[in-house]
Design goal:
It is built from eleven helices and four strands; from the N terminus they run αααααββααααββαα. The chain has helices spanning about 20-30, 35-50, 55-65, 65-75, 75-85, 115-120, 125-130, 130-140, 140-145, 185, 190-195; strands at about 95-100, 105-110, 155-160, 165-170. α3 (about 55-65) packs across α4 and α8 packs across α9 (about 140-145). The longest helix has 14 residues, at about 20-30. The N and C termini lie far apart (about 75 Å).
Length: about 210
Amino acid sequence: MQDDTPHQHGEQRIPSDPALRVMALESLLIEKGLVDGKALDALVETYEHVVGPHNGAKVVARAWQDPAYKARLLADATAAIAELGFGGLQGEHMVAVENTATVHNLVVCTLCSCYPYPVLGLPPVWYKSAPYRSRAVIDPRGVLREFGLELPQRCEIRVWDSTAEVRYLVVPERPSGTEGMTEEQLAALVTRDTMIGVAHVQPPPTGTKR
């Protein structure tokens, strides 16, 4: 008797959940010898714990707490960031720009997706998208509005175009209500988006212990 039931031998179904799909793809690549498991683990470890926005947040927090450090950061960001132990590939030529009550800075890369990996980690998908890369220059105020950031007309918006030679870090305004907070507590308030310039740092919740 012939069995007409379709056989699935050798066929691997990829789960619908993105995290499970990544795990399945990773396992498949390792199984076929296309990726070294230890190398992949080292890469993940690097982007989770060595480089990433937590590094940039420490830079910003130090600048908020230490005026002398902020002056060095704005004068020579590469050297000032290196003082905290951060630097390396795609972070060799850094420029820090400071947000104030009258000036707001926005970072984009119109040609590709140049990005300061040592202090911000991997770029978000929207940063690499064509609409953001084009509209951030043409209509920065409108783009910021779509991110939920409404700036007063009196606030000047400066758009900085990253290149393979120069990458930018926005030093956001320090929010009110953070007086007396430690550097570590301040760093916890700083997000990746605030250091790209598409968001403001939010003040700590009322009642936060300092």
